[in-house]
Write a structure and sequence with these properties.
Length: 377
C-alpha cells in the first residue's frame, strides 16, 4: 500500500540548524494551526537540498495536524545556511533582545571556531607573531550582529550559561530579561555569602568564653548588616552581601575586655559605614586617631562613585606609641581574591607598627604569630 503524504511528512527530518529557535507551543501553536486550517499555508516551507527542513518546522507540524498539504521551496545553497535560518526566523518572531542573545549562544562555538581558522600569523625570522584580536570577542560581536542584539547581552548570556543555566532557560523562554536574570544570579551569590557569614557568627565561640589574655593590638572586620544603611533594594538593586550582625550587636561586642589598658585597634570599615566608626571605637573604650586607606587596583560596587578604596580606623586606648614613625596612611595592594579577605600588606603594616601578640576578630584563616577569634580558625 502506498504511503500517504501525511505519513511521509511525519517521517521528514529537521535539519540541525533549524533547531536554533524553539518550537511554538500552547496558544501560539494553536493560533497557527487555526490560521492554516482557515487560510491554507501562505508561506512555503524551506528545505535543504538533502530534503530536511531548514525553516518552517512549526508550519510543517501545523499542516500535518490540520491535514493541509504543505508546499516547499529548496534553499539554493548560496551563502551561509546559518545566516539564512536566522534571518528567516528573526523577522517573523517577536523575540526580545535577551532571547536573541540566548539563542545566539547556540552558534557561538561555530563562530569562535571560524575565527580561529581565520587567524593569520606572520613569520619574522624564527619567531611567529599573531596578527588577530581575541577570537572570543570577535565571535561575540558577530553573533550580536547576526541576531540583532547587544554584544554585551551575548556576553551576559554566556555568563548565565556557565553559572546559572536555569536562568538562561528563563531568558530564552521570555520569562525574564537579561538584567533580571543577572540580578537574580548576583543575589544568589550574595545569599551564599550571607549564609557563610551567618554560619561564621553562629559557630564562633562566645567572647565571654574566650580564655586568652588581653592583647595590645586588635584587628577587627565586623560582618556588617548593610540594612542599617538603607541599602536593601535601593534603586531596585539586590541587597548587599553581608547580613550577619546589626550595628547594635557589633556595639555590644566586649572588644574592650580583650584589649590591654594600653592598646591599639584597627577597625576595618567601608566607605558607606564610616559614620558608624567613631561610635564603635568609643563604645569599646578607644579614641580615634587616624584612618588608613587601602587603595585597590580595580573598581568595586557603588551606588554613586565606584568603590576603589577601603579604610581602617586606627584607635588608641591609654598611651601606646607606634613602634615606628615612618609609615604613611595609605597602602596599595591587589585584592586577595577570597571574599572579604585582606591583603598581606595590611598585616605586615600592623606587625611593623603595633606590638604583639595580635588578635584578629572574625579571622578567616590562621596567620603566624596572630591569635584568631572566629569559626573558620
Amino acid at each position: 500500500m502506498a504511503m500517504g503524504w501525511i505519513e511521509r511528512e511525519t517521517e521528514r527530518l529537521y535539519h540541525p540548524d533549524a533547531a536554533l529557535f524553539p518550537l511554538l507551543e500552547g496558544p501560539e501553536f494553536e493560533e497557527l494551526k487555526a490560521d492554516i486550517a482557515a487560510n491554507g499555508l501562505l508561506e512555503a516551507i524551506w528545505l535543504h537540498p538533502d530534503g530536511s527542513i531548514i525553516d518552517g518546522r512549526n508550519r510543517h507540524r501545523a499542516c500535518i495536524e490540520t491535514e493541509t498539504r504543505p508546499e516547499f521551496r529548496t534553499w539554493d545553497t548560496g551563502g551561509s545556511l546559518m545566516t539564512f535560518v536566522v534571518s528567516m526566523n528573526l523577522h517573523r518572531r517577536h523575540l526580545t533582545s535577551g532571547q536573541r542573545a540566548a539563542i545566539s549562544l547556540d552558534v557561538l562555538p561555530m563562530l569562535e571556531e571560524e575565527a580561529r581558522e581565520r587567524q593569520e600569523t606572520t613569520r619574522f625570522g624564527s619567531g611567529i607573531v599573531s596578527t588577530t584580536d581575541s577570537e572570543g570577542g570577535k565571535a561575540r560581536d558577530q553573533a550580536a550582529v547576526l541576531f540583532q542584539t547587544n554584544p554585551r547581552y551575548v556576553q551576559d548570556a554566556k555568563q548565565l550559561q556557565d553559572q546559572a543555566p536555569d536562568l538562561l532557560d528563563k531568558v530564552r523562554a521570555g520569562e525574564q530579561t537579561i538584567p533580571q536574570a543577572k540580578r537574580e544570579l548576583k543575589e544568589r551569590k550574595r545569599e551564599a555569602i550571607r549564609e557563610e557569614n551567618r554560619k561564621l557568627v553562629e559557630d564562633t565561640l562566645p567572647l565571654s568564653e574566650w580564655d586568652r589574655q588581653p592583647v595590645p593590638t586588635i584587628v577587627l572586620d565586623p560582618p556588617w548588616d548593610w540594612g542599617d544603611e538603607g541599602d536593601c533594594d535601593q534603586f531596585g538593586r539586590a541587597r548587599p552581601t553581608y547580613a550577619t550582625m546589626s550595628l547594635e550587636e557589633i556595639l555590644a561586642l566586649p572588644v574592650g575586655d580583650l584589649a590591654q589598658p594600653n592598646a591599639h585597634i584597627y577597625l576595618w570599615i567601608t566607605n558607606r559605614s564610616l559614620p558608624k566608626g567613631s561610635a564603635l571605637l568609643e563604645a569599646w573604650g578607644f579614641r580615634y586617631i587616624t584612618a588608613l586607606t587601602w587603595c585597590k587596583p580595580s573598581f568595586g560596587m557603588g551606588n554613586y562613585f565606584r568603590g576603589q578604596t577601603e579604610h581602617v580606623l586606627f584607635g588608641v586606648r591609654g598611651s601606646l606609641p607606634l613602634l615606628r614613625k615612618d609609615v604613611g596612611t595609605w597602602f596599595a595592594a591587589p585584592r586577595p581574591g577570597e571574599h572579604s579577605s585582606k591583603p598581606d600588606a595590611f598585616y605586615e603594616l600592623v606587625e611593623r607598627c603595633s606590638p604583639g601578640p595580635w588578635l584578629e576578630m572574625f579571622q578567616r584563616k590562621p596567620r603566624p604569630g596572630w591569635a584568631g577569634w572566629g569559626a573558620e580558625v
